[in-house]
Amino acid sequence: MGGDPLFAHGLSLAVWLILLGKVVAVFVIVLVSVLFMVMYERKAVAWLGVRYGPNRAGPNGWLQSLADGTKLLFKEAFTPRTADKWVYKLAPYLMLVPIMIAFSIVPMGGEITIAHHTTYVQLADPPWGILFLLMASGIAVYGVMLAGWASGSKYPLLGSVRASAQLISYEAVLGLTTATVVMVTGNASGFGDALHTHAIVAAQSGHLAFLHWNFIHTAFVSFILFTIAITAEMTRPPFDLVEAEEELSGGYNLEYSSIDFAWFYLAEYAALVTNSAILVTLWFGGPNGPTVFGHSIGPFWFAVKVLVVLYLYVWVRATLPRLRYDQLMDLGWKRLIPFALAWLMIVAGFQVTNNVSGSGFGHWLAQKAWGFVAIGAAIVLAVLFLRAVEVGGGASEVETAQQDRLAPDGREVARRGGTP
Amino acid sequence: MIQPLHLLGFLGQASPASSSGCTIAPGGFRVDGFCTDPGSLHIPVAYRSIIPVLVLTIGALVMLALSAVLPKRARPGLWPALTALVGAFSLAGAVWQWYDLGTAGAAQPTIGGQIFYDRFSVLFLILISIAVIFGALSADSYLRREGLDGIEAYILMLMSAIGAMLMAQSGSLIMLFLGLEIMSIALYVMAAYHRRRTQSGEAGLKYFILGSFSSALFLYGVALIYGATGSVEFGLIGNFLTGNVIANNGVLLGGMALVIVGLGFKVAAVPFHYWTPDVYQGSPTPFTGYMAAVAKAAGFAGLFRVLTQALGTQQANWRPIIWLMAVLTLGIGSVMAIAQKDLKRMMAYSSISQAGYVLVGLQAASATGTSGALFYLFTYIFVIVGTFAVIGLLQGRGEARSDLGVIRGLGRRQPLLAGVMLVFLLAQAGVPFTSGFLAKFYVIQAAVQRGQYWLAVIAMLAAAIAAFFYLRIALLMYSSDPAEPGPLPVDVPPADAGVLTLGLEPIASLDLETTLVIDPPSRGPVPVPLAVGAVLAVSAAFTIAAGVSSFAIDFAKQATTLF
Amino acid sequence: MDWAVYLVGAAMILTGALGVILLRNPVHCALMLVFTMFGIFLEFINQGADFLAAVQIIVYAGAVVILFLFVIMFLGVDRKEAIGAERLRFQRPLAILLGLVALVEILALSRVDHWVSGAPAQSGALKGAGSNVAKLGQSLYTGYLLPFEMTAALLVIAVVAAVVMSRRHQPSAGEMSPAAQKELRESHQSALSASDPSLAGRLEAPSE
Predict the structure, then answer these.
(1) pTM score > 0.80 for this model?
(2) Residues B379, B358: contact at Cβ < 8 Å?
């Protein structure tokens, strides 16, 4: 596979125009879906809470987000005196751009032919597609971090420091779980293509497509870890400590108003849509689905899947309470990262097939021996890890006690430290 | 359609590495074209060639895991014992390698051409393994005295040994750089390990900043050499330079110069030696000995590899540089040592001047010179580890004293300890019937064989100057006048003192972290722990044995596989 | 096409580099550094080095500079120029002079000497079909397997070193023998009463 067939015959004017059209299309899709998403969330949360939700602007209140946007646009754009003007104005864009470019690698359908030019229904299919995704999520930190710093006041700074620590912590899980998808894809479609998003989707197609989804192929665990991590990356509930009103009175975008604030708002929901789309691409076969009278209706299935995932996020938001900061860090570093590492090892083990001829259960065991070795190693490491957390936890309790200037009680401490 | 990936195929069947438009050259060097068959993602790995590295890596990881799961108050002496055990296994592996290799000819690259499996590297593997054992044994009592005992020091020691071994075995500039970094990062932290002494932190910081700078220069040199020759493997560089004469060799020479700078820093050759006195003085004393032994050996191994194997055809260009460095190192090291008042600082300059002799052997670029340099390095670790172990014993808690006075009258108080120290001093001075004499003799002989009489004369002059301060220490030990100890250098961090006088946060300021317990050495004999005693006894015995018998030079001659 | 991308990338690199050394505010400097990273990213893409391009952004822009910013924010060194307090007055002119000399040397060398020796790269050129990333992976797992594995050792040692340097080690009571605890408590007590008599007795031994 050599990427998008659009470029197979050089860059003619038509190709340029198609490219431009695709750029505009992606831009519009993201913006419109944000307008929709804001309302979708408010309505759904209201239903879950047995309330009406917004129901005044437009038919049944569906134009409410448009009205909100217009209102924001006409408010005064306020810049605090202590703010760093340039960075303050730059930050909202730094927030939005990575999310927009991440959407450009999402495949929304199979192939389409416009004026004799066949092309993928996705803006770009670079040979390093998944790395592009990680790259976008890596630089998304800048918006949050700089917005808080440039505001020149305390609460936004605290919020942004919290946020950047959170984003950095959960990025590792994101990478480790995505790696399992890459491995599975590489094994199915040849390891030269494993990073193409198009190839990832193609590898999940087949008879009874449901069984070929990576969701099944990596045995759910990777998907669950990935979902948790990407929720934290978006600072969505229950990981929305960044804008904990009770503690930070608003978070990193506290000082922003008018259009600048609108960008942040937009970026937040654009991230939600983009990441749901990526989730669908990586785990649920993207636009794969049953054909209707022999016609592929990829974009329809894609939209349906994204809507389901979006509802999942709304549901989580309406249900789960916010984590405490130390719980967040514990979950990230002590639970998710070790788990993701162990699972990566196990998936890798099962991707190795020993050349043992024959069939039957015994031969299958022999063929997949490395997978079972990996499971065994993971169990041993887990036991060691839990023991280490226990020992280390005892020691850190002692340190905390000493920092609190309690008189050290040797016997009590020794028992907690695990000494017999 | 599931295709097997043989990334982990080393226990299973190994498919031959050649199919569908991709080949791996016989030496395992490179891959031409793109392998569509995943089975060709398998290269033969000669595990026998990296046994000591594997042993140390696995040992370090197992010890880390153990330290995490064992209760905090582990048995005292567990970690040094384990470290010495790992070192012993590694030594056994290296000795096995020595006999496994036999008297094979030229060095053969293995594992994709990244390392060499030859007796030259095995000599260094043996040397580094011994340094690990000695380092662990002599550090234990010191660390316990200073209240620093824990596993980290030993992990750092093992890991730095891994880096040093990779440097000695390296078959490519990339491997050499990786080894250099692994070793250096561990050594930086070891230098700063005594967190309550400000000098130790200073030593670590200086070593780190200057060291990273020299690593950057080294890396730039690597890039230039790659640009000039098109490869990073020593063998391929050598082949290319043999087969082609580069008319415009500016890039190559620039790269060579920068690589020499980077490695010259590690071996503390003048003019890249400025860090040495400060770092040697500030570092915890047993670590200084370990550092002097391992970093120097590994740095010289790297220099030998690059200069003779990769750039052997450029001798006319690098020999004058090394010649000048040797002369400067010999002269400045010896002269500056005389002026020192501090024992550790004096030993630092002494170690600089010792590096000069190895440079003399290197610049001869001959089999005699190489075997002389190998003999020098091999015997030097026993001397230097032993010397610093003795100094560490005498200093008292908190490294209270390391001035020359601390050794005064040692001969009367503890004749045995003084005798051992005397052996080390005489060996460094190059007195006959010690290893130091033969070592100096062989490298100077190599210079004479190449007709470099001036260099030989300079080396002998430097030895004469150096003998002055070694003998001064020796005389001090046996001087009959144990003078009153001078005022003690009290090491209270300034911030701490301020806090104490102001009476603010008194409890916080009194934690162990900031309070350095200083306890000057008692006037009577210092206790010699068993482990240190064993190290000293073996070192002294070896130093004399290598000076009166020829087994060590035979060993070094058999390890000279580069020519 | 290539040259246009090259020019844009080169302009970004130079602008960013100049910004890093000329701007006063450390946060702005860090941002200019990111700008440079993106210039390098463009150049890598232009050369077909996709993986290096991605890693350039993920690692350098996404992690390293973020850490710089963390340090700047936590230490609060923003908006203050700390370079004023130089001990050695000749340092800055000397640095400028040496920098210029190095620049002139490089220019002179490139005029009088050919930089390229004509040696072809012998270790994994971009040949044949397949993406750059896959080829790089193949190279890592064949010819450069050992350096790749040993990088893991480098990372382990870096972690251990960072832990050693950052942890304020205070032997907890559980790690100390009872005698050592007693000794420590007594030394604290005596130092306390020496510094301020009113504080005497603050560190009473717990009832045994």
Answers:
(1) yes
(2) no
